[in-house]
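quick q for whoever's on today - can somebody do inverse folding on this one?? i tried earlier but teh output was garbage lol. tokens:
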């Protein structure tokens, strides 16, 4: 079949290959995990968590208010003073290792719940989110009793209570990114997941209980933005670790101004993925698809702005369209699915709004031809061809499977365009020349730059942003520092 034929779509389908869900254990109602126990919320209120691929309710989730936040922070402070900070580091490490091992043991269950609650394909949650979450606990468990070697002659000390607030795109993995280094450095934790994806964090609370972590060392509370704000404002909190939108990041920064609370903010992104004419084109096309379409574009470091060198633009766009036609959008629990459900109705509305904006801005829109399921929140993988620097779809974070395409002639031009944006979280460079890679990695204002690959993560490697993408690093040795004073 010629590529021209492929761009019009396949007329055959894979047989469904649904992942079993009879092995998972879910309650109909979840309470707050405070001081080692599940307790009813002071608000007496619960909210629904919904499966975005079916629009059906999965469970009721407790809605924490400021009093619940106070109980959780007080429990964390007591556990810090009475137990955790006094415990020998090698004993702390054992708990963290134990959590890692139980995550591995319960990986299948966690993967299925992540896909049900958040909408991401089971392939992603099973092969990436859950194993990488376990790896973070393993990695930081290893550091717990080696802090003096990590920072020689600097006598690192823990901070106290860490308030950790996370978004909905990698619920379990973000919880692991936050909790593992905090515990390894001797801090205690109050963590709040995003309201639409609380379930795997609550499963993690069950695991933490099963691992006999001393009560209060990790508290997991569910609720809305007001609970997050109460965590940030609480006087007993010493450190804030936030991953989410730039707007909320700015609110947090204002709220802690003038206090001695430490903070790391991991915020939005709008990454440039740059393809030079000497790049391995087929591999690059796969990298573009991996960078923006897998995980529905719900990735802060998604390669959402494509820059292609002018003389290969036609070839790249043609091959990209052909590859996109083969992507399967549908049931997140089907092992063949490439693109699952958009996390929530609100997010889908936001993406659709941007699709309208792009068309209004006069851009050529390309969407794949296969139908998407009628029920549930779905968006077809989309290209905006012929985009310009000034377009809103280029400048603003869409957080969906939408890719803008711009062309360039010279290295200087692409560096200027790639950097001309408020964000600076990540970027990708595709070329055969090592010298070009080194040139770009020094000139692109982005925290992470991938060369001839995209979206690769490892617990040993630091991650974080420049400019409005935030500050502080998570992962690696660098990820220990925000939880220590010297
Ligand atoms: P969000 O609206 O900023 O929410 C993030 C978290 O903050 C949620 O738990 C949210 O609770 C809570 N929150 C809301 N208002 C708050 C307030 N005033 N004070 C304290 N906490 C508050 O972000 P999102 O929509 O969940 O996630 C998408 C965003 O996260 C994107 O911009 C994406 O780029 C960014 N992100 C960045 C990274 C990174 O590493 N840089 C990683 C993943 C995602 P509710 O859910 O109840 O509103
Ligand atoms: Mg949900």
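ok took a stab at it. sequence:
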């Amino acid at each position: 079949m010629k590529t021209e034929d492929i761009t019009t779509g396949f007329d055959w389908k894979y047989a469904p290959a649904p992942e079993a869900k009879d092995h998972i254990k879910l309650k109909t109602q979840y309470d707050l995990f405070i001081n080692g126990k599940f307790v009813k919320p002071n608000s007496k209120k619960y909210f629904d968590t919904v499966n975005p691929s079916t629009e059906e309710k999965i469970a009721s989730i407790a809605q924490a208010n400021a009093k619940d936040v106070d109980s959780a922070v007080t429990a964390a402070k007591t556990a810090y003073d009475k137990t955790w900070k006094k415990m020998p580091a090698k004993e702390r490490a054992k708990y963290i290792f134990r959590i890692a091992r139980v995550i591995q043991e319960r990986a299948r269950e966690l993967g299925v719940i992540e896909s049900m609650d958040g909408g991401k394909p089971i392939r992603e949650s099973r092969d990436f989110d859950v194993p990488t979450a376990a790896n973070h606990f393993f990695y930081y468990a290893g550091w717990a009793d080696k802090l003096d070697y990590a920072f020689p002659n600097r006598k690192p000390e823990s901070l106290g209570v860490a308030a950790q607030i996370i978004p909905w795109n990698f619920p379990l993995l973000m919880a692991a990114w936050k909790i593992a280094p905090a515990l390894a450095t001797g801090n205690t934790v109050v963590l709040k997941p995003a309201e639409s994806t609380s379930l795997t964090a609550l499963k993690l609370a069950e695991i933490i209980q099963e691992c006999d972590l001393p009560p209060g060392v990790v508290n997991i509370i569910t609720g809305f933005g007001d609970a997050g704000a109460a965590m940030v404002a609480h006087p007993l909190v010493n450190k804030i670790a936030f991953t989410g939108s730039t707007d909320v990041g700015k609110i947090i920064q204002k709220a802690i101004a003038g206090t001695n609370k430490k903070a790391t903010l991991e915020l939005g992104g709008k990454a440039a993925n740059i393809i030079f004419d000497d790049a391995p084109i087929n591999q690059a096309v796969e990298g573009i698809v991996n960078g923006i379409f897998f995980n529905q574009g719900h990735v802060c470091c998604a390669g959402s702005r494509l820059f292609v060198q002018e003389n290969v633009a036609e070839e790249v766009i043609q091959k990209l369209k052909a590859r996109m036609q083969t992507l399967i959008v549908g049931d997140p629990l089907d092992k063949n699915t490439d693109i699952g459900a958009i996390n929530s109705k609100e997010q889908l509305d936001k993406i659709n709004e941007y699709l309208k904006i792009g068309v209004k801005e006069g851009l050529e829109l390309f969407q794949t031809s296969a139908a998407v399921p009628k029920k549930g929140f779905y968006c077809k993988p989309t290209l905006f061809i012929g985009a310009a620097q000034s377009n809103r779809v280029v400048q603003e974070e869409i957080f969906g499977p939408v890719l803008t395409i711009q062309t360039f002639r010279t290295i200087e031009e692409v560096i200027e365009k790639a950097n001309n944006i408020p964000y600076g979280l990540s970027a990708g460079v595709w070329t055969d020349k090592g010298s070009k890679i080194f040139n770009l990695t020094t000139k692109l204002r982005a925290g992470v730059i991938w060369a001839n690959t995209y979206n690769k993560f490892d617990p040993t490697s630091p991650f974080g942003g420049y400019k409005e993408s935030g500050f502080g690093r998570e992962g690696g040795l660098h990820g220990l520092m925000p939880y220590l004073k010297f």
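fwiw Residues 165-169, 192, 194-195, 224-225, 228-229, 232, 243-245, 248, 251-252, 266-269, 300, 397, 399, 425, 465, 469-470 surround NAP (ligand 1) (CB under 6 Å). also The longest strand covers residues 56-62. so keep that in mind when u check it
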